[in-house]
Amino acid sequence: MSTQTYEAETFRKLQPQEYLRKFLLKEVRPDGRELKQFRQTTVNLGCISTTNGSSLVRIGNTTVVCGIKAEVSVPKQTSTKEGYLVPNVELSPMCSPKFKPGPPSEHAQVLSENINRLLKSASILDLNTLCIHEGSAVWVLYADIVCVNYDGNVFDACVIGLITALSNVKLPKATFAEEEGLVKATEELLIPLNLSRLPYPATFSIFDGQYLLVDPTEVEESVAHEVITIICDEAGQICTVWKVGGISCTPKHLEKCISIARERYIEIAAIVENEEKSNNLI
Amino acid sequence: MNVQFLFPKPPPSIEEVKDADGDIDMLLKSQRQKFETKVVTPGEVIAKDTQYMRGHGTYLDENETHLASVAGVVERVNKLITVRPLNTRYTGNIGDLVIGRITEVSNKRWKVDINSRQDAVLLLSAIHLPGVQRRKTEADELQMRKFYSEGDLLVAEIQGSFQDGSSSLHTRSLKYGKLRNGSFLIVPPTLVQRTKSHFHRLDCGVDVTLGLNGYVWVSKPSSRVLNEMSEDDSEYIYSNENEPIGKDAREAIARVCNCINALSKSYMSITDTTISYAYEASLNFSVKEILKLESIELIANQTKQRLKA
Amino acid sequence: MADRRRIQGPEVSVAPIILKSPNKIQLLDENLCRRNGRNLEDIRSIYLKTGLISQANGSAFIELSKTKIVCGVYGPRQTKIPAFSGKGNLNCEIKFAPFSCPKRRPPYRDSQEKELSQLIYEALTPSIRLDLLPKSTIDIYITILENDGTASCLAAAITCASVAVADAGIEMLDLVPACSASYINGQIFMDSDLIEEKRESGSLVLSYMPSLKEITHILQSGEVELNLTSQAIEQCTDSCSKIYSIMIDSLLLPIQNMK
Amino acid sequence: MSSSLISPSELDYIIRGVDDNLRADGRGRLDYREVILETGLIFQANGSARCRLSKGTDVLVGVKVEIGSIEIDGTDEEVAAVKAKRGRVVCNVECSPIASQQFAGRGADDINNELTQLVDRVLNGPQGGLNLEKLCIIPGEECWVVYIDALVLDYGGNILDLIFMTIRAALYNTRVPKTVIEEDKEVEISDDVEEWERIEGWELVPISITLNKIGTRHIVDATVLEELATKAKLSVMVNKNGKICGIQKIGGGSIEHGLLNEMMQTGRSIGQNLILNLDKMLQKEDEINAERAKNDKIGFFAAA
Amino acid sequence: MRYVTPGTRLCFASEYEAGPGTYEREEYIYSSVVGIVQEFIPTVSTNTGEEKKQSKIITVSKEKHQSSIPDVGNIITGKVIRMTTREAVVSIMVVGNIPCKDDYQGIIRSQDVRATEKDKVKIIESYRLGDIVKAEVISLGDARSYYLSTAKNEYGVIYAQSVAGAMMVPISWQNMQCTKTKAVELRKCAKPEDLFSKNQ
């Protein structure tokens, strides 16, 4: 560790904006990536045996674990066949110095809410398929997403984690014993969920109103205020577009984002498929 | 390592308070008047005479009658009537000798717990600085923990009081300063009387410092005679090192401590005389036996008798 | 009262009753071999890796077959405690991920987590040179991703946290490996898993500084004869020494590979 | 009050005193203070006791026995089958803010949780002594729930030992009503106080002996100042038969391997002795209580 | 090269003196960090010219640096985050050359701004919010803040923005000029040194 790296570190700490600007002038990012390059992404399915479905997603250093547990409850009176799908994101103080212990921070609330909205608006899972016995018993899927390392673009990691964990879910065969009012289930987990579509996201930051940074790291996120997220599905259709913070972005940027997001979809789908294949082999 | 279990003893009922000589005194209210110490409860009439002046712990009703506002002992100095509370936090008076514990080091001052309603303040300018008479410097300001640090015990004099009622202390004498070589006790502040000196050397070779705030320090006498001008000595007064204490000395300190506790439990005033009497009375017991309730009672009774004699 | 900060599910939900195949679980076979092929005194194989959390000053990940624990260490950083202290302050918090146990855990901190945090704090404090860190706080955050035996989880969390503290470059007296044992029918099962733990009559968790031969924590429950306790303590200290070498490797291998 | 501060010279005095086997109050390393004991002082409870150390800690324990439902854990049938036949013990320890300034506000939260968990763990397992199966009324449905609430009223060191002592005394004092199960599974509780019984197994309720490591040695029954000088505490829970019912290190600091064994031995022998004395006292207390019941009692805290 | 972890016994205490990264317990010296063992003989020149035999010092140089914490005598760099008439509050971001993971709080009291004419110092004429300041730690201070001093030539503001939002350059030890509007503002400047030159 030479003195020079220290000085660069010092500079980065004191003048983060200037620091990033100097890199971008040379069309390169502080971690050596090109502007439109995603970090290496890996998905690990079924890694937690206490769940009905689980997934570990890493995008560069960013790591999230999503575990889905199925429990039984009574359906709402208004929709007697509908089950529940409850996603929650936990940003513990372990994953970044930014977070403090206690109830979910605003940031975590925003992530949970956005994911919940995505699930509903894109109707990924028909909640009627979670019915065990109409009017008496339905499945509740608790999808808890725990962030282990927060190095930017956690939203992408959370969505990929949730979607892949959902596709990994296996439910037991359950019957409702009417006289006892209990649900009894088999020991083996067999029944997968029937997901209507598998959307995957891509997130971008805009720095200084001109640089489009794909898959921003934590350092980049902290200085670039405009964030655009595009979620598309296997047909290349756009499920959601979010733009948060900053002032505005040009249509040109948006177009570019959409085309990159489509490419990204193919990339993730391939990674997931590979993982599923190797999982099935075991 | 036997553990002793006891049953609680019921309190002596008023009708049965035994005098030292074994007679039963009927302490009816009318008879109580005869006693010099008069114990009152809040709201009790102290005096109906309007010639008296109203002091602490009393108030006047619309009939100009003096009533007690606290539970305690009535005291009268000429025309001033006060009630000294039986159990209270200490209220600082200028010139009082107190023992305190540092609770906080802040800008140019220490906060000191003196069993009072508020922590007292010890200003950096009010301590004896190491070296020959000198002014405090900025260097002193930055290293205040070299003198006193959180938790340290010290003996000091009350110099004055602030608007909010808290006291300011000073240790500008070699008598005052950090406490070492001994053991710390807390007794009700009302049991410690104001006397000419609060530093006592008992016959058994133990030093007792009685803070008027009810904090008491029992220690082995220092072997070092301090000299105001000596550079070494002024460093020494802020040292945290104990001198070696032999087993005998330790036992004597423990015995004195236990005697003071016995006195405070029996609600007897704590002076060098009572401590000496109690000490002598305690010699029939081993040190740890003085912790027992029955021995405490015996020691207290013997001390009472000697005081009367 | 509904917590608006989380997405709420239904008010009540329960795990379904699982119809089990009736065969009884045999803890030991005729060769005194356990279900997973271990002997009584064997511990599970350990995977331990440092530096998983790039955001933290130090971090570690431990895996004991199914048990998975991550730990991040932050600090020394400025303490939030208002009083001055010439010594550093250590803060431990352990959290079970909601999906980590057979039964779903609530997302907020429960009293078991508070107690475990306290135990880990007590186990690690003796090993950290807090006197060198005035006015500072070290925060240790631990997340249990999967729990396969609570006593062994506690032990693994201590081990993991100790490595993470060393990984943060914080000065320590020694690493603190920890190990657990279960008392089942008068026998000592080292490092028991969840199924064994449910059948135990008592358990022991011990953390130990092997170089200094000092015990930093001990927690035993169950009614046990004194000599069986002594025997279990011996076995645990032995296992701790084994874990110790794994801890050293996990810290040194990345450096040696780098050079 | 600066109750958690101690000066370096006081520390040194205490450590050297422990070394010399002569503590600040004249006690040896393994001397206990006198304990003042009282039972049956809360009439609303099924059992109660209060213990005080001669100048310091004061603990009041109330035991209440109520009918509750048996909780079923669906994940492991074998374990659930055992649990279905058992009653429950629920413990709670609370350090009252009147005991010490450090318990004011939220200051007692941590210590309350720690003590509650510790006491609960010891009394709820098989080592707790109480025969939980006898507390079962209808298997799988209803059982007696024993609520043990300990309140620390004054703090002069060594809380844990005193809590366990008081709990044992309170459980001795506890009587559980008789129940009759009627045909329609309704539970009838007998009103005849004479028929009420002690909880089976109270004799085996463990007590704790806390050993404080000061310097290189250890002491029992530490005072507040001695606790501040303590590097590590080891609590050893012991029952009448001399079996170890729990060991826990409390506080920062470590214990040498050799010392640990020594401390466990000491804890066990002192503990057995303590139980013996405590039981003698409890039996005497029964006689006194019977006597007392004839007179009206006034002044709950009057006795000195 | 010998790599060690905390708790590794290095040598007898009689052979060496325990240096940084090590500690002494009973008759041994142990490592207290993860790192490489090094030893050296300190070169001490005694002014009396006596040949003093120095014992060898054993150290373990940290392989991974602990997040730095300020100590008395350290040079720190930080940002002014709050000001009163008596002091400027600085968020300490870098200690020596090592950035802190989390910022510490320090204060520069008015008497510590400069070495001369201390009574005439006005905080507002020395620092402004957002200035990057280089200073020395002079005391661990109170419960909240470290005490800092800029009473030396090389300490003071090293980077500041003008009212117009542009960068400013120092023109004397107490003046800085805006690069855009050429307006002059008051600052206690650090004697310029090429701090960031390597990156520019």
UniProtKB/TrEMBL annotation, chain A:
One Gene Ontology MF term: mRNA 3'-UTR AU-rich region binding
PANTHER family assigned: EXOSOME COMPLEX COMPONENT RRP43, EXOSOME COMPLEX EXONUCLEASE RIBOSOMAL RNA PROCESSING PROTEIN
Domain Exoribonuclease phosphorolytic residues, every copy: 37-172, 201-263
InterPro entries: ExoRNase_PH_dom1, ExoRNase_PH_dom2, ExoRNase_PH_dom2_sf, Exosome_comp_Rrp42_subfam, PNPase/RNase_PH_dom_sf, Ribosomal_Su5_D2-typ_SF, Rrp43
Superkingdom in the source lineage: Eukaryota
CDD domains given in the database record: RNase_PH_RRP43 (cd11369)
Protein's cellular compartments: Cytoplasm; Nucleus, Nucleolus
Main location: cytoplasm
GO biological process: exonucleolytic trimming to generate mature 3'-end of 5.8S rRNA from tricistronic rRNA transcript (SSU-rRNA, 5.8S rRNA, LSU-rRNA); nuclear mRNA surveillance; nuclear polyadenylation-dependent rRNA catabolic process; rRNA catabolic process; TRAMP-dependent tRNA surveillance pathway; U1 snRNA 3'-end processing; U4 snRNA 3'-end processing; U5 snRNA 3'-end processing
Family listed: Belongs to the RNase PH family.
Record's protein name: Ribosomal RNA-processing protein 43
One Gene Ontology cellular component annotation held by this UniProt entry: nuclear exosome (RNase complex)
Species, as recorded: Diversispora epigaea
From TrEMBL, chain B:
Locations listed in the record: Nucleus
Keywords of the record: Exosome, Nucleus, RNA-binding, rRNA processing
Residue ranges of domain K Homology in the record: 182-223
Source taxon at top rank: Eukaryota
InterPro entries registered for this protein in UniProt: Exosome_cplx_N_dom (IPR025721), Exosome_RNA_bind1/RRP40/RRP4 (IPR026699), KH_dom_type_1 (IPR004088), KH_dom_type_1_sf (IPR036612), NA-bd_OB-fold (IPR012340), S1_RRP4 (IPR048565)
Entry keyword annotation includes Nucleus: yes
GO biological process per UniProt: CUT catabolic process; exonucleolytic trimming to generate mature 3'-end of 5.8S rRNA from tricistronic rRNA transcript (SSU-rRNA, 5.8S rRNA, LSU-rRNA); nuclear mRNA surveillance; nuclear polyadenylation-dependent rRNA catabolic process; poly(A)-dependent snoRNA 3'-end processing; TRAMP-dependent tRNA surveillance pathway; U4 snRNA 3'-end processing
GO CC terms: cytoplasmic exosome (RNase complex); nuclear exosome (RNase complex)
Span of domain Exosome complex component N-terminal: 39-77
Domain RRP4 S1 span(s) in chain numbering: 89-159
Chief subcellular location: nucleus
GO molecular function: RNA binding
Family note: Belongs to the RRP4 family.
Stated name of the protein: Uncharacterized protein
Source organism (scientific name): Diversispora epigaea
The organism's taxonomic lineage, starting at the top: Eukaryota, Fungi, Fungi incertae sedis, Mucoromycota, Glomeromycotina
UniProtKB/TrEMBL annotation, chain C:
rRNA processing is among the record's keywords: yes
Alphabetized UniProt keyword annotations: Cytoplasm, Exosome, Nucleus, RNA-binding, rRNA processing
Places the protein is found: Cytoplasm; Nucleus
InterPro entries: ExoRNase_PH_dom1, ExoRNase_PH_dom2, ExoRNase_PH_dom2_sf, PNPase/RNase_PH_dom_sf, Ribosomal_Su5_D2-typ_SF, RNase_PH
Molecular function terms, GO-annotated: RNA binding
GO biological process annotation, one example: rRNA processing
Chain segments annotated as transmembrane: none
Domain Exoribonuclease phosphorolytic: 43-171, 175-236
Gene Ontology CC annotations of this record: cytoplasmic exosome (RNase complex); nuclear exosome (RNase complex); nucleolus
A UniProt-annotated Pfam family: RNase_PH_C
Record PANTHER family: EXOSOME COMPLEX COMPONENT, EXOSOME COMPLEX COMPONENT MTR3
Similarity field: Belongs to the RNase PH family.
Protein name in UniProt: Uncharacterized protein
From TrEMBL, chain E:
The keyword Chaperone is annotated on this UniProt entry: no
A GO cellular-component term linked to this record: cytoplasm
GO BP: RNA processing
Signal peptide stretch: none
Domain of life of the native organism: Eukaryota
Keywords: Cytoplasm, Exosome
CDD domains membership: S1_CSL4 (cd05791)
Keyword Protein biosynthesis: no
Entry GO MF terms: RNA binding
One Pfam family in the UniProt entry: ECR1_N
Chief location: nucleus
Domain S1 motif: 73-152
Subcellular location as annotated: Nucleus, Nucleolus
Protein name according to UniProt: S1 motif domain-containing protein
Organism listed in the record: Diversispora epigaea
